[in-house]
């Protein structure tokens, strides 16, 4: 078809999105559906499941040339794809998700995205998937999910394997209490993007991070005295452990005084011996940076 302003724009847009789309997904321009006054070009998106196609189209519709984009139908059977996790090795929230899949013995694929290293253009593309621009994002069952805790809940509800939330409601609430304590009481404050808004001075940033980490771990230490067994709550791995392990690893890296939190450290050390945490450890990933990397 002749190149119009819309087709060129849409083609560029798709090229940009290649880093987020599975390489096997074929996207081609097929015709100009002149019978449809509202659309000036058509795309065929194949080699991916119907749900994935819908997600892709939702994504493409965000583009200014959106009214010019539509999909041709494909007779292909929906294909079952591995979930894809966008994140980076040392992101504690990404580790939560890696460990959830590993605890379920489920296969998934990691794709590297680090907001701290991304170019402005990459950030702008990524913001279409998560307007906060943060990782992790999980592409699963045709959805793009952001926010690690709902992602963990989704995995628990849909992926077969050992359960990660206890049956008993009281224990389940304890698990969620620990998850929330870490997820909203500690992790956001240690985020370098937050510390950098607090001060330009790296020493003051570190002071800020350590203050909030130690405040949160003081609370966690107290909660764990009431809930722990071999794990954070009882003796089985739960969502609480999926949050605790990455948090303890990050706390040490950010310079907290870990000797103040012996119970947290004991549970952390014991959990690190287990396969789901060993396999998904940040020092053991395809994109593991060298030790001196700050983030
Ligand atoms: N509540 C979010 C927090 C996500 C988050 O803070 N991710 C960090 C990496 S662990 C990030 O992407 N930071 C970059 C930024 O804040 O710009 C979640 O649980 O997914």
Automatic annotation (TrEMBL):
Q: A single GO molecular function, which one?
A: maleylacetoacetate isomerase activity
Q: What is its EC number?
A: 5.2.1.2
Q: Which cofactor does it need?
A: glutathione
One GO cellular component this record assigns the protein to is: mitochondrion
GO terms for biological process, alphabetical: glutathione metabolic process; L-phenylalanine catabolic process; L-tyrosine catabolic process
Query: Which branch of life, at top level?
Result: Eukaryota
Name all GST C-terminal domain ranges. Answer: 168-290
Q: What are the GST N-terminal domain coordinates in residue numbering? A: 81-163
Pfam (any one): GST_N
Kindly state which reaction or reactions the protein catalyses. Answer: 4-maleylacetoacetate = 4-fumarylacetoacetate
Record keywords, A-Z: Isomerase, Phenylalanine catabolism, Tyrosine catabolism
Q: Which family does it belong to?
A: Belongs to the GST superfamily. Zeta family.
Mind telling me which NCBIfam families this protein's record contains?
maiA
Q: Which protein are we looking at?
A: maleylacetoacetate isomerase
């Amino acid at each position: 078809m002749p190149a119009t302003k819309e087709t060129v724009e849409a083609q560029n847009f798709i090229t940009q999105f290649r880093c987020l789309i599975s390489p096997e997904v074929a996207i081609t321009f097929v015709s100009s559906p002149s019978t449809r006054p509202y659309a000036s070009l058509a795309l065929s998106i194949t080699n991916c499941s119907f749900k994935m196609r819908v997600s892709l189209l939702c994504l493409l519709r965000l583009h200014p040339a959106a009214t010019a984009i539509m999909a041709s139908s494909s007779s292909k059977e929906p294909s079952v794809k591995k979930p894809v996790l966008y994140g980076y090795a040392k992101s504690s929230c990404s580790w939560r998700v890696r460990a959830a899949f590993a605890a379920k013995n489920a296969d998934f694929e990691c794709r590297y995205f680090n907001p701290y290293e991304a170019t402005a253009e990459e950030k702008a593309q990524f913001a279409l998937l998560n307007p906060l621009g943060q990782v992790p994002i999980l592409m699963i069952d045709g959805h793009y999910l952001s926010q690690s805790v709902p992602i963990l809940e989704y995995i628990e509800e849909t992926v077969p394997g050992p359960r990660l939330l206890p049956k008993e409601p009281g224990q389940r609430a304890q698990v969620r209490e620990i998850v929330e304590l870490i997820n909203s009481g500690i992790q956001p404050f240690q985020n370098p993007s937050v510390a950098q808004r607090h001060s330009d001075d790296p020493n003051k940033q570190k002071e800020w991070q350590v203050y909030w980490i130690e405040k949160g771990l003081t609370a966690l230490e107290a909660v764990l005295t009431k809930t722990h067994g071999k794990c954070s709550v009882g003796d089985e791995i739960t969502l609480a452990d999926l949050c605790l392990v990455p948090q303890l690893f990050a706390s040490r890296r950010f310079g907290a005084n870990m000797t103040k939190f012996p119970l947290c450290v004991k549970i952390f050390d014991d959990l690190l011996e287990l396969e789901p945490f060993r396999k998904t450890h940040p020092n053991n990933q395809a994109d593991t940076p060298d030790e001196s990397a700050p983030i």
